[in-house]
């Protein structure tokens, strides 16, 4: 026993100085890679639907004068006449569906499991695009956007929780960034399709592609297991350990990770263990009624003094993510820059989306190195500065400054405000309140997204369409950045919520 303990200690010490890429290759099995890629299609769909109307806006609303060929189907109109305000409603109503999905997902994934919630979510990802791509009118297009929004809101709640629970402990920050990387991937796919298909009735193909992705994910989820951590907390520790073994590989040491579940797996008898081990990976064993009663609800979490500071922190970060203006670029960059760059706006939008994806991917390990809070503050500072430069570039008609400022704006977002917010809920509260906290965070995020998507085109038009609205975003970056610097704690390197908020040290001093 002593030899085993010494060997384990030596292995741990040798791995602490191990390069990140080597550690990542060792900890990521083919099975885990498959699981992560399948579940991350949910955030990809979120990004896709967020950007799908950007490039084809003028074609969909019948503003483009070069429409001259037949629609895809004789019974479907080639375009749907809308003014600016009506298009803003169709774009922003997606976020109201997202709000509903975000509020529902937390309680669902806590009570019925992460896997079932993801499967229900994916059904909406299939149905929503059917209505969108076949819509003959504004009302049906908006209805399809609502359904897609419900799915997206749910996905960006449950998928980060699931990824955090299945990711190797030493790379949680890196794997947590996968959510935002896939969001950006979805944006890139939508913008590229928009660049090539924003003509005639081909815009309907853009919307239909999302349904195809949803159908593929629904089928692929049949091979994805429930979160081991959720199973362990619901009186299935042996089945949880079995799934974790498949994810980590036969040679991995699971003791430390299993110990973190705070579950005594020895209390299960052998017969139950064997039945659990033989159960299919996606099955839902009997739920623990005690665990369900211990789960903290959305409103009780906010009223509890132990969880309220964390909820305020994640809400502040999520609101900042949107009110610094990122979706003014994602959703409206083509129309925003078309006056200044009439022939290059759509191409610049594709370049912006690709840059966002590359920078987010490259910066994914950054939060594990310099800290979550530091990344967020650097991101806010960069976006605030870029907003001022963008306002000057558009207002003064300096094309190169506007283009560079737009690229810097998106790159700054990718450093911190893009990937980090999705990690925080899991690190600021205990597992019993993660679902509730994530629901609060995403509800705030969707409300802020609605405000930007609904009122940006209206305010931009009211302020003369000279880029002055970006001075507003710069001011918001300053105010919100100051609040985050004061309120939000650093979570990097902390073993749990108690240590993050200093409660562990306080207890030790008392003892």
Automatic annotation (TrEMBL):
Its main location: membrane. InterPro entries: GLUT (IPR045263), MFS_dom (IPR020846), MFS_sugar_transport-like (IPR005828), MFS_trans_sf (IPR036259), Sugar/inositol_transpt (IPR003663), Sugar_transporter_CS (IPR005829). GO terms for molecular function: hexose transmembrane transporter activity. The keyword Transmembrane applies. It is found in: Membrane. GO terms for cellular component: membrane. The keyword Transport applies. It is a multi-pass membrane protein. The chain crosses the membrane at residues 31-51, 87-105, 137-162, 174-196, 202-224, 310-333, 345-364, 376-394, 400-425, 437-457, 469-488. Residues 35-492 form the Major facilitator superfamily (MFS) profile domain. It comes from the Eukaryota. Keywords: Membrane, Transmembrane, Transmembrane helix, Transport. Belongs to the major facilitator superfamily. Sugar transporter (TC 2.A.1.1) family. NCBIfam families: SP (TIGR00879). This is Major facilitator superfamily (MFS) profile domain-containing protein. The lineage of its organism: Eukaryota, Fungi, Dikarya, Ascomycota, Pezizomycotina.
């Amino acid at each position: 026993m002593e030899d085993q303990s010494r060997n384990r200690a030596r292995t741990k010490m040798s791995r602490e100085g191990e390069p990140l890429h080597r550690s990542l290759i060792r900890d990521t099995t083919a099975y885990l890679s498959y699981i992560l890629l399948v579940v991350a299609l949910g955030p990809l769909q979120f990004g896709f639907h967020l950007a799908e109307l950007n490039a084809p806006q003028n074609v969909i609303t019948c503003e483009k004068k070069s429409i001259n060929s037949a629609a895809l189907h004789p019974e479907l109109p080639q375009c749907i006449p809308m003014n600016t305000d009506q298009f803003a409603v169709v774009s922003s109503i997606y976020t109201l569906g997202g709000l509903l999905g975000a509020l529902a997902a937390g309680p669902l994934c806590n009570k019925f499991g992460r896997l079932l919630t993801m499967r229900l979510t994916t059904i909406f990802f299939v149905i929503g695009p059917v209505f969108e791509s076949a819509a003959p009118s504004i009302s049906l297009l908006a209805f399809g956007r609502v359904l897609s929004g419900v799915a997206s809101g749910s996905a960006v709640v449950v998928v980060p929780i699931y990824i955090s629970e299945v990711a190797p402990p030493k790379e949680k920050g890196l794997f947590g960034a996968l959510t935002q990387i896939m969001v950006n991937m979805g944006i890139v796919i939508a913008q590229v399709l928009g660049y090539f298909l924003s003509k005639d009735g081909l815009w309907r193909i853009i919307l239909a592609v999302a349904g195809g992705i949803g159908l593929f994910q629904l089928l692929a989820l049949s091979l994805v297991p429930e979160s081991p951590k959720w199973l362990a907390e619901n009186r299935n520790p042996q089945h949880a350990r079995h799934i974790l073994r498949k994810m980590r590989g036969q040679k991995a040491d699971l003791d430390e990770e299993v110990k973190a579940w705070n579950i005594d797996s020895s209390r299960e008898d052998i017969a139950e263990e064997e039945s659990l081990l033989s159960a299919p990976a996606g099955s839902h064993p009997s739920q623990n009624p005690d665990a369900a009663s211990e789960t903290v609800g959305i409103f009780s979490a906010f009223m509890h003094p132990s969880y309220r500071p964390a909820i305020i922190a994640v809400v502040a970060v999520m609101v900042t993510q949107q009110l610094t203006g990122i979706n003014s670029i994602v959703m409206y960059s083509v129309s925003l820059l078309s006056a200044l760059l009439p022939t290059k706006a759509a191409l610049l939008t594709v370049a912006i989306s690709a840059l966002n994806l590359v920078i987010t991917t490259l910066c994914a390990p950054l939060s594990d190195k310099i800290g979550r809070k530091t990344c967020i503050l650097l991101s806010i500072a960069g976006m605030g500065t870029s907003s001022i430069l963008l306002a000057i570039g558009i207002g003064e008609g300096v094309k190169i400054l506007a283009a560079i400022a737009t690229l810097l704006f998106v790159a700054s977002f990718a450093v911190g405000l893009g990937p980090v917010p999705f990690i925080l809920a899991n690190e600021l509260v205990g597992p019993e309140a993660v679902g509730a906290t994530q629901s609060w965070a995403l509800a705030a995020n969707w409300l802020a997204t609605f405000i930007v998507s609904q009122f940006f085109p209206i305010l931009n038009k009211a302020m003369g369409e000279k880029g002055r609205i970006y001075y507003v975003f710069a001011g918001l970056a300053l105010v919100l950045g100051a609040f985050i610097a004061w309120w939000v704690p650093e979570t990097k390197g902390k073993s749990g919520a108690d240590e993050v908020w200093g409660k562990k040290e306080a207890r030790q001093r008392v003892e």
